[in-house]
Design a protein that fits this description.
about 350 residues, alpha/beta, Arginase, Chain A, binds zinc ion
Amino acid sequence: MKTVYSPRHRLHADNQELNAGVITPAFELPARVDFILQRIAAVGLGEVIEATRVDAVAAASKVHDAGYLQFMADFWRLWLAEGRSGPTMPYVWPARGQHDIRPEHVNGLMGYYSFDGGASFVEGTWEAVQSAVWSALGAAELIAGSERGAYALCRPPGHHAGSSTMGGYCFINNAAVAAQRFLDLGAKRVTILDVDYHHGNGTQEIFYRRRDVQMIDLHADTTVAYPFFSGRTDETGKGEGEGFTRNYPLPFGTSWETWGAALDDACRAIEAYGPDAVVVSLGLDTFEGDPISKFKLKREDYPKIGERIARLGRRTLFVQEGGYAVADIGHNAVGVLTGFEGRS
Ligand SMILES: [Zn+2]
């Protein structure tokens, strides 16, 4: 399987983050990509292709609000104009009883276009965000060609990014952009299967009223886990999209027996939908050693994920999302991919 990635992801690197209400050393680190690339080389997964620079904004504007994209493009200039220069994160949001109006000051704009304090900006963030889109689109092109599977090694990740909101390390929803690209290239139906530990709230919001993209998500029960405000079983889509969103909230401590059964059920729903392509939001934070998550999947479980997805018999694009057990992420991510290829 071929991998597409951009070394420009390194431009987005903050040394701290706001996690679970505490300022901590950053978990979402450039080293995550290094460990995955090392493992790809070690097992000989296949060619690693540097993503070609393309118009990320044009592609992203199919699933994101134009004002939101313009805000991110302008952010660093606005920040410098305020006399600031260091890393920053949002800190104020419109909530119940307030007006959802677009302010003018950069700090207000940051809150307006985010849903949490988990999307921090440094000088190179916007360039890195765009480079992740290049990777997603490059890998989608491989699938649109002759490849049965491809891997977009995206960083920063994307599944928490909604149509006009960043958060949870995510800015542009790489999986959503790729799914839309498949539709634009002629696919009639695309499934996004999100296996990250956290609910893909952004992806769900983007496609909630559509039937041409099926959104299926296995994640930690959001009555007790981030991102808290979405991901329940009664969220099934709206209007034309009714019935095309499906959530599998699972309890803390979930291990393969339960998780694998949920995946099997999800795969049957995908088979019933009959998509032309599947986009897998590939998070590895379901791992028992993950520092910010509470599932119990083991290293040997990851190939089984790939094997089950392969049995769908669909063209499949894997898009990198979360996973913060940095030294293990290479084994776990590549385990899914070799499982898909029937090599493990
Ligand atoms: Zn996650």
